[in-house]
Amino acid sequence: MIKLFKENIGFLYYLIGEGLSKGIVFLSIPFFTDQLTKEEFGKLSLYWVSVPLLSVFLDLSQRSFVKYSYVNDKENIRSVLMVIKSLLFLNSIIVLSLILIKNILGVYLIDKRADLILALTAAMYAFLEINLSYYQIRGQYKSYNYLFLLRNGLPYVLTFITLSVFKSVYTFMGLQLVVFSLLVILFLSRSKYTTVTREFFLSTLKKSISFSLPFLPAMLSVLTLSFSDRFIINYYYSEIDVAEYTIAYTIGSVFMACFLATNKMWQKFILENLKNNQIQRISNAAKIYSAIIFLLGIIIVLNKNTLVVLISNDSYLKIVELVVPIVCGMFFYFLYTLISNIPFFYNHTGLMVIPAIVSAAVNLILNFVFIPEYGYSIAAYTTMISYILQFLILYFICLSKYNLDILFNVKR
Fold first, then answer.
1. CA 121 to chain centre
2. Minimal CA–CA distance to 378: which of 277, 267, 165, 236?
3. Are 59 and 130 in contact (CB under 8 A)?
4. Integer Cα distance of 328 and 294 in angstroms
């Protein structure tokens, strides 16, 4: 019993860390909706989704290579981290320069000030994400969750304290940049630097890019599927509509946070058991895991009205029915995350591009076709359809390529 508890305590830590950080975000939203107008809240929500999206461009999804390197060559992992962070620094300089040029030309993603803060914050976010990937794959769940909680929760706590005095949509943006900067400085001051040869640097850079480039369109497609609907809604309608849709999506994000938290431990579990060919053990755990997440989704749907009012106010109740398709889509995304580790284990990252790109493309097409005709509420249903499609494509890839089905035990 003690051994079983020690083996699974990581799940508890990840669940608590994700729960606390998402709980802080969740509980702070009523404060944002009260202190900011719907237009301002809509602009802030666009900023929220842009930071992780831009960070993938900055590190070229090298955070994935950190996990692969640790599993296959952990002796050189510190040197690999130095190479990856050097690449991030160079890319950040390039992107920041492009943002400055774009601002001079009067072209904005959100607005002039927000775009500049976005570029700096996304660079810090990518740096911290690389370190989080390292902690996760090493099984350092305590260090992971301390950093994760500080990064994701502290900016909201500080904004909660100061927003009533400095009532501006830029208050959160500035405080988040300050928190991220302090965390990066802390990491740099405590880092143990290693010397790498020119040959090692170039060979590692080549391996990391060749490994991660297929991941890049996949990661971007996943983020596009998650966030593009709000930019399209803003394009056709207004930031008020973005704000209303954001509340519905936030309820779904609470559901997503629960399984993404435990999925961090699941990834370590499935990779280790695939290495030892413990397929039945993986399958048994996957079925139990899926049943628990499904039950959690049902609970959230049954309490959707209460949750919407809890994080906003009565004026947002018009979007309550959008919670159902969003949560349904999130459940299929959960199933996708369960099996996505299979091609990752076999270093067939290119195969992961197919479902990601197809589902993201379908989502964009459906949104551009139907949102102007039926309003922003249709985005919840296009999201659900796209997540279902993403899961089905990867499921049949795993079945046909590896003859592996850890969910239904179907044999090819």
1. 15
2. 236
3. yes
4. 9
Task: Yes or no: say if 342 and 274 are a contact pair by the CB < 8 Å rule.
Answer: yes
Whole-angstrom distance, CA of residue 80 vs CA of residue 226: 30
> Any idea which residue has 């994700």 for tokens?
18
Two structure tokens written together for 345: 């284990």
Number of other residues whose CB lies within 10 A of the CB of residue 280: 11
What type of residue is 324? V
**Which alpha helices (DSSP H) does 105-191 contain, by range?**
112-138, 141-162, 170-190
At residue 1, does pLDDT exceed 60? Answer: no
Phi, psi of 377 (to 5 degrees): -65, -25
Positive or negative, the CA dihedral 110, 111, 113, 119 is positive
pLDDT, mean of residues 112-128: 93
| Helix (H) or strand (E) segment spanning residue 57 | helix 38-59
- pLDDT tens track for 334-382: 999 899 889 888 878 777 778 888 998 999 999 999 999 999 999 999 9
Q: Rounded to whole angstroms, what are the CA distances from 105 to 98, 292, 398? A: 11, 51, 47
Tokens of 274: 């695939």
What's this model's pTM, rounded to 2 decimal places? 0.70
Cα dist. 143→8, 10, 183, 224 in Å? 16, 11, 13, 29
Gap between the Cα atoms of 8 and 3, Å rounded = 9
Residue with tokens 């296009």: 382
Nearest 5°: the CA angle 89, 138, 272 is: 125
Joined together, the tokens standing for residue 277 give 């060919």
Distance CA 202, CA 91 (A): 16
d(CA 114, CA 43): 9
DSSP per-residue string spanning 334-370: HHHHHHTHHHHHTT-HHHHHHHHHHHHHHHHHHHHHH
Q: Which residue has the tokens 């001079």?
A: 104
Report yes or no: 251 and 327 within 8 Å, Cβ to Cβ: yes
CA angle 68/73/76 to nearest 5° reads 115
- Angstrom distance (rounded) from CA 312 to CA 319: 11
Contacts of 404-410 with C-beta under 8 Å, sequence gap 24+, read 404/279, 404/342, 405/283, 406/279, 406/282, 406/283, 406/286, 406/338, 406/339, 406/342, 407/283, 407/286, 407/287, 407/290, 407/335, 407/338, 407/339, 409/283
